[in-house]
Design brief:
By secondary structure, the protein is α/β, with parallel strands linked by helices. The protein contains 13 helices and 13 strands. Helix 9 crosses helix 12. The longest helix has 17 residues.
Amino acid sequence: MTFVFLYTEIAEYFLACCNRLAEHGEVHIIRWPVNKEAPFRFDVNPAIRLYSKQDYSLPQLQELVASLKPDVLICSGWIDRDYLKISKDYFRKIPTVMTCDTHWTGSLKQRLATVLSRFTLLRIFSHAWVPGDIQRSYALKLGFRPDHIHTGFYSCDLGFFNHVYESQRSQKESLFPKRFLYVGRYYDFKGIPELWQAFTELQQEQPCDWELWCLGAGNLEPAQHPKIRHFGFVQPKDLGNYTSQTGVFVLPSRFEPWGVVVHEFAASGFPLLLSEPVGARSAFLKEGVNGFVFKAGDVGSIKEQLKRVIAQSDAQLLEMGAHSHARAQAISPDSWASTLLDISRDK
């Protein structure tokens, strides 16, 4: 079989899933340029073919896709008009799959989309593939058939992060690292300024041994504090140097449709501290069992949950991490590839 992806920005976790899919057929990925704020270096399986969209005009793209003779066409949302035109060419000929990580909020724009989708999206795409149930509800409102909506679109490289957990577990059992870890871009919408402020105020009010380590890059000036450390952008394969020295993962985003990074650190055995908008918490966090939830943008709320973590014993934090690891096994590159194979059989 031949699978063709019309994709925006690829990531390491996406390629890990495509590696599994390549065991079942040809995989071709037309993609946007690499994001400057996340300059990933990819080690691409020779069985996967990559094409840069910027190298082709629309007629050339159409000719390229036609030459590949796809059995399934997968498109990143509805943001790219060229991709939409190509997808429409194959509608009702093969499965045409729209991926979507948008939450249903009931906004005027979304309500309008549910009306217009009958004349637009549903005449381009036969299937919707979403990360979880909160996105599934939006796909249903857009008019996709319930049996043509699939979940589990995002998966981390589960094998890699399971290895991180197994290889570092005994070290953390001996001495649990009293460090929070943030991994993500340095932008306001990530909520990191509130995290920095909450941690700084906590250290002023109740000084303790805990530190906050931050990995990422962006347009924000890093907060300066003796117990807040900044390491810049880190390639995924180098994360082990930091996961072995940190204990609790925190993601304070004001806006986060999913967040594969949550899956990565759940698999790595980290207790989780997540803001309410983080979509992946629905799959990987159970309040009070393997982590805590706080209000996005609320310094007081973040600070209270930081305190709850600090109050836990090492044994409790290790148990929370084990629960995170167990919950992470629900989605994998195997299940991701199986979903596409199931879609390929749909008529």
